[in-house]
Amino acid sequence: MWAASCLASCCAACACDACRTVVSGISRRSARIAYCGLFALSLIVSWILREVAAPLMEKLPWINHFHKTPNREWFETDAVLRVSLGNFLFFTILSVIMVGVKNQRDPRDGLHHGGWMMKIICWFVLVILMFFVPNEIISFYESISKFGSGLFLLVQVVLLLDFVHGWNDKWVGYDEQFWYVALFVVSLVCYLATFGFSGLLFHWFTPSGQDCGLNTFFIVMTLILVILFAIVALHPAVGGSILPASVISLYCMYLCYSGLASEPRDYECNGLHKHSKAISTGTLTFGLITTVLSVVYSAVRAGSSTTLLSPPSSPRAGGGKPLLPLDKANEQEEEKNKPVTYSYTFFHIIFSLASMYSAMLLTGWSTSVGESGKLVDVGWPSVWVRIVTAWATAGLYIWSLLVPILFPEREF
């Protein structure tokens, strides 16, 4: 007994030392990756609790206080929402704390990049406390999460447009034949993939003998938008490029597929319904990993996008450098006065919205029933969110092409 106690104490001490070593090794450059890792951990915890926490939650009187015990799916959804709420509060509190941080001299800059042991403990405590809040609060959070998820998708679209236009400007800026050929090849591949994808959508989601007018409308509408992108981008008055148009076209077609694939498995026009009874753990794992990568990429991109998040005082390339070298003391002072390169507040808001979005994905937008409750991101609300996101993407892209013409006196 004494030996076992000593062994347990040694293991606990080693674990604490390991955690302390890891968090102390997080630098300014790796802080954003650490936030992404913490967020990915929250998604893994949500997924695990969705699978195993239902029997325990049924025994908690402040959660299961109903006259008739809800089905297992209700407790699975509730577990995901409670972890998501803890994650949402953690990043929202950080975003409020970071309001007004303009340079690295601000003590809150150190909090943003350091104090990881304290932040991990606070995150863990918040998640645990969420399992003691009333069901009414969780229900309210579920309702607002649908709107927060829409905002996150809108931010994701803006980031995509920013990335595509930057990609095009960089290749055109080289002003060499090789890069022009590369631009043409990539655009051609994107268009071939777009139209080939549309053919598969007609094959999968408009089966013969079924009245699938809604699915046909979604696919045809997306094809019309694809053609409209090319017409507007190549119009002489616009002077756009074919590369952004082709990439946005492929993305819109992917969103159309994603929406159609999210239709309930018992819907006769969903060509994937035949595989509903063959969903493996590996497929679910792949779906969750895809979700994690998508959300993490959006957060990292948001945190590094100079066009969207840089404060007015942030440093520009080559700007503000002294002509003569400084001594060591002045160099340290200059480093402290250096402006921050992105908005910490907006960075944490991205994670707050991503917490809502991931909760909706893991719960099928809290509307899936029966067998579809075991699938990630399935249900009619998910269908409409994806389709509307595709239309919003189209609207924002066309607006980005037309706004310099409509407002020529403004600089974009």
Textual characterization of the structure:
The chain is an all-alpha fold. 70% of the residues lie in helices and 0% in strands. The chain has helices spanning 2-24, 31-52, 54-57, 72-97, 107-113, 116-129, 135-174, 177-205, 213-234, 242-261, 281-304, 306-309, 328-336, 344-362, 380-406. The longest helix has 40 residues, at 135-174. It is flat. It starts with a helix and ends in a 6-residue tail after the last helix. The model is unreliable at 1-25, 276-280, 309-324 and 368-374 (pLDDT under 50).
List keywords for this structure.
412 residues, 0% strand, flat, disordered N terminus
Topology record:
Blueprint: H1 2-24, H2 31-52, H3 54-57, H4 72-97, H5 107-113, H6 116-129, H7 135-174, H8 177-205, H9 213-234, H10 242-261, H11 281-304, H12 306-309, H13 328-336, H14 344-362, H15 380-406
Helix pairs in contact: 2-4, 2-11, 2-14, 4-6, 4-14, 7-10, 7-14, 7-15, 8-9, 8-10, 9-10, 9-15, 10-15, 11-14
Reported for the largest beta sheet, the result is: none
The arrangement of helices and strands along the chain is HHHHHHHHHHHHHHH
Low-pLDDT windows of residues: 1-25, 276-280, 309-324, 368-374
Overall mean pLDDT stands at 78
- Report the C-alpha radius of gyration, rounded: 25 Å
Question: Tally of extended strands?
Answer: 0
- What is the count of DSSP helices, taking H or I runs of 4+ residues? 15
Helix content: over 70%
Shape: flat
Distance between the termini: 72 Å
Q: From the helix content, strand content and strand pairing, which structural class follows?
A: mainly alpha
Beta strand %: under 5%
